[in-house]
Amino acid sequence: MANLEFSRTAPADPEGGLASLIGESARMAPHWTAPERAASRPVPPSHIHGVRVPDTSARLLEAMSDYGD
C-alpha cells in the first residue's frame, strides 16, 4: 500500500464562510482537469423505452405535495 502524504497551504476553516470556500476552491482548481468533450451521437428511436417506476415509489411520489410542505 502506498504511503500518501497530503500537504495544505492553509488549514480549512469550517466556520470561514464564503471567502474561505472560494480560497479552498481556487487552491484545488489547478489539480483538477476537465475530460475531453465526447461527441454525442443521436440515439435511434428503437433504443428509447419508457420509464418504469416501482409501485411503491409511484405511491410515495403521488402522496407528496406539488410544492413541498
What does this structure look like?
The chain has 69 residues and is an all-alpha fold. Helix content is 30%, strand content 0%. The chain has two helices and no strands. The chain has helices at 17-28, 55-63. The protein is flat and about 45 Å long. The model has no long low-confidence stretch (mean pLDDT 76).
In short:
This protein is mainly alpha-helical and 69 residues long. The chain is built from two helices and no strands.
- How do the helices and strands follow one another from N- to C-terminus? HH
How many separate helices?
Answer: 2
User: What Rg do the Cα atoms give?
Assistant: 23 Å
Based on Cα principal axes, name the global outline.
flat
Question: Given the helix and strand composition, which structural class is it?
Answer: mainly alpha
Ordered list of secondary-structure elements with their pairings:
Layout: H1 17-28, H2 55-63
Describe this protein with a few key phrases:
69 residues, single chain, 2 helices, 0% strand, mainly alpha
